[in-house]
Specification:
By secondary structure, this protein is an alpha/beta fold. It has 3 domains: 3-67, no CATH class; 76-346, Glycosidases (TIM Barrel); 367-401, no CATH class. The protein contains 13 helices and 11 strands. The chain has helices spanning 14-17, 64-67, 134-143, 169-187, 205-222, 239-242, 265-279, 300-313, 324-328, 337-346, 367-370, 376-383, 397-401; strands at residues 3-10, 31-37, 76-81, 102-110, 123-125, 148-155, 191-196, 226-229, 252-255, 288-293, 316-322. α4 (169-187) links the parallel β6 and β7 (191-196). It starts with a strand and ends in a 6-residue tail after the last helix. The relative contact order is 0.12. Residues 1-19 form the signal peptide. InterPro entries: GH (IPR017853), Glyco_hydro18_cat (IPR001223). Keywords: Signal. Residues 75-349 form the GH18 domain. This is GH18 domain-containing protein.
Amino acid sequence: MKSLSTVATLATLASLVNGAPLLRRLFAASNVASVTFNEPTVPEVVSLNGTNSTSLEDFVFISKEALQIGKVPEKVVGTYMGAWPNGVAPQPLSDLPKEVNTIMISFATDGSADKMGKGHGTFEARWDHNVFTKEKIAADKQANPDRVYLISVGGSADAGGTFFTKVSNEEWINNAFDWLEGQITELGADGAEMQFEGVPTYNPGLENFKTCMEGLLARLKAAGYITAVGPFYGRWGTSQQYKLLDLTNVDLVNMQMYANGRTSASDVVSDGKAAIAELQGSGNAGKFVFGANSAGRMSADVALESFEQLLSEESIRGLFTWDIEHSGQGGCNPKYCLETTAADILGGSEYKEGSCDCPGQISPPHEEHTGCGMSWADAQNHCGNPLCTVDADCPGDMKCFGGLTTC
């Protein structure tokens, strides 16, 4: 392993001193030359310098220099990537425009593939493992030093993005933190986003959601990672549940403003102001990130005009898109225009109507376009999801299309 000369600071929690360590070792990335402590009451570990210590397992090294954890961008241009939306495979990271500085790796779903089963706080990584590797992310970060990667947990309720527990809240938090920290380390990512779209509306499930989300986000934040939540605003939205959370330990609130089916900028702006008021709360100004859609669920003109107005009237952080696959592979003209235009607006430019067009779905999966036996009907039959139709997004597309013949 690479040896670093960086001095790593060890963060500790009060309960660590009380004999119940909440922090654990994260030493996979590199050897650390020496260690200092920010509390005088930690057990006696003075220095590593290549030597062993019986107390090492009780600690996590959170030096951002040593672990290469990025910083939250001041002006966010974000996107979701990796979920195979509508059967569209993710493009190489090197193809993404430099303006994109925040990538939500999509998605980790409740761990049905894990031996523990669902409801335990363990997850299944559903993204494309050929695109997201530690080596490729490291190379991309070197080329784009301001870009950060977040592991997004949840997604559509129809495809594993439903929150529930079968264990105590404390055990769920511990399991979820362990799993996410392992993935962050394995990929060289910078943090995590909670994006559960299936959220309980009644107690005790709603109370468990609040306790588990706040506990997990606090653990992630204490360990030095970037944190985010991803509610959506609408008639069946989850903003009502997410507004119950204490967002003190949240860096970004990624709000899906396209989920309500609005067709005018005035309606979207009105919804945006209501969403900000609903979620912002005391001390949370400037965390709101406006969501635009590159698959036709809100026109690009409406999205960008609404974003521009909200930016001028409210304290918001930036814009994200669902999804970068459509935006860069035929869904938008010019390609990536949602992301690049958002960056221009954040930089002070005025949006010109008609300069970005994202008409909607692209092929695949239409059989007549691909010529390889993959159709919407095949996808619907394969995953049993009635939402896999020509006219709607197909949640969990890796599940829907993963077992089919591809081009």
